[in-house]
Amino acid sequence: MPKNRVRGFFHQGRIMSSINTISPERLARLIGVAHCPTLIDVRVDDEWRADPRFIPGAVRRAADSVGQWGGAFAERAVVVIDQEGGALGAGVAAWLRCARASSADLLTGGHLAWAQAKRPLVPGTKLPPRDARGRTVWVTRSRPKVDRIACPWLIRRFVDPNAVFLFVSAADVQGVAERFSATPFDIDGAFWSHRGERCTFDTMLDEWDLDIEPLRKLAVIVRGADTARLDLAPEAAGLLAASLGLSRMYTDDLEQLEGGMRLYDAFYRWQRDATDEPHSWPATKAGKAP
């Protein structure tokens, strides 16, 4: 293989980015959306101990055993994150391509470049224990409406894409939590619950340092819909109506959660990308007044 294919391409005397890399700027636009690639943090133990935070949604795997776990990511798009975007991550990405990942890119500059740019990082020390398959397990009251759908959406999109959610009667939450090592949320007395006038969604944003503007604005809408303060945001009434509608459409809580994931995907993308887009009749070009 020509040398210029190892780490990049030569163009007019400069080294251009490899086709198997992704920039922090590009990755930042993908985090939180439904089609975000699987993010795999392969920093070695010493590097992790020096900074036990991870890019939102990343899972941690040991680079030296990629031959054993790589097959689990077949047919999936993957971004590999090492310390500096070097040989370790490039090797893992190459292994994953051999394991038939649909794509496997290396984050340019790695974890250090992301951190130095002051992009969001989730403190691993503030996550509940994981099960034998590396998943966080959560339990809450059945028949969710607003916060108990918003929080699982937040967890799966920004913290743990493989998180498990158990919905049980209110009387059984604590017993299930103890017996199945699950973390209770959005229930009185739990760590992950309402604090004052702020709801569980707010608590999670605060604890995980998710200071992402569209999420903070979405939190106000969730708070308004969840605590009968529809005056907090014009969209709160719409979110409440859609949430109550979903609760009538589904008798199975997990099916309702899947439907709710798309609802919050839409609210997040609107808040991030489309709040300045007008819609009127007669139709006008986007961004132009009639």
Keywords:
290 residues, alpha/beta, three-stranded parallel β-sheet, 14% strand, globular
What does this protein structure show overall?
This protein is of the alpha/beta class. It contains eleven helices and twelve strands. The strands form four sheets. Strands 3-8-7-4-6 form a five-stranded parallel sheet.
Short description:
The protein is of the alpha/beta class and 290 residues long. It has helices at residues 24-30, 45-50, 66-69, 87-98, 110-116, 147-158, 173-179, 200-207, 213-226, 236-249, 253-274; strands spanning 8-11, 14-17, 21-22, 38-41, 53-54, 59-60, 77-81, 103-107, 122-123, 137-141, 164-168, 183-184.
Order of helices and strands: EEEHEHEEHEHEHEEHEHEHHHH
- Cα distance spanning the termini: 58 Å
Instruction: Summarize the main sheet.
Output: 5 strands, parallel
* CA-based shape: globular
Count of helical stretches = 11
Please give the order of strands in the largest beta sheet.
3-8-7-4-6
Rg, Cα atoms, Å: 21 Å
Low-pLDDT parts are 1-17
Structural class by sheet pairing and helices: alpha/beta
Extended strand count? 12
The helicity comes to 25-40%
The residue-averaged pLDDT reads 92
Strand content: 5-15%
How is this fold's topology laid out?
Elements: E1 8-11, E2 14-17, E3 21-22, H1 24-30, E4 38-41, H2 45-50, E5 53-54, E6 59-60, H3 66-69, E7 77-81, H4 87-98, E8 103-107, H5 110-116, E9 122-123, E10 137-141, H6 147-158, E11 164-168, H7 173-179, E12 183-184, H8 200-207, H9 213-226, H10 236-249, H11 253-274
